[in-house]
Amino acid sequence: MLLAVDVGNTNTVFEDHALAHSWRIKTDPRSTADEMALVFRGLLTEVPEITGIALCSTVPSVLREMRTMMQQYWDHVPHVIVEPGVKTGVPLLTDNPKEVGADRIVNTLAAHHLFGGPCIVVDFGTSTNLDVVSAKGEFLGGALAPGIEISLDALAARAAQLRKVELVRPRSVIGKNTVEALQSGALYGFAGQVDGLVDHIVAELGGAVTAVIATGGLAPIVVAESRTITHHEPDLTLIGLDLVYAKNVG
Q1: Which of left, alpha, beta for 14 (phi over 0: left; psi -120 to 50: alpha)?
Q2: What is the tens place of the pLDDT at every residue in 189-216?
Q3: Which residues belong to the active site?
Q4: Which domains does the chain show, CATH number per domain?
Q5: What pTM was computed for the model?
């Protein structure tokens, strides 16, 4: 059983690809290897033996402890960490390839595998990432914007009469109270932001794209309101990790 682990700034998602079990836990940069192992082993008690691990992380401190955890608790299991030197098959056509997050590389691989190219990945997480994939599966670059939750957190922190609200569709775009006005601004505002960026990217590419794929924990909130998103694939990063593992271990 392959265990695919995606460590993001807010959440850590992992899934076994034999039974398609999936778990989402909060990412804590202060967690130790032993604490992580306790959580993982507790959640994995009902699944078959792990035969491989594929991991990507955007949090350096967690990545360090993950390495220690794998050495101490699963040292007999083949593992692949997406980092320099690991085969991904994704050329990085950017000014500084070392700046590109492992999750963006893995998403590029999975998107091209599933939909061909050129295509666009919209990852709704701590930040909203738009990643552009060429027809050949190359990572061309993209756009980064503040994520939905941290934007609302910042607004609540800086405005005395505003507060955090549940991210659901309001009764109408024209909010009749503060809660609905915040919900409208978040939902339709971020959908409009994505649509605008996608339009500019498609124009710069000089033609149509095969797909605009939404992923990430907050994607379900925006997908239904977006004009340009064509597919929702919540496990895009985990699918990419599976592909990377196959390229490096078999």
Answers
A1: beta
A2: 999 999 999 999 999 999 899 999 999 9
A3: 103
A4: 2-81 (3.30.420.40), 117-234 (3.30.420.40)
A5: 0.90
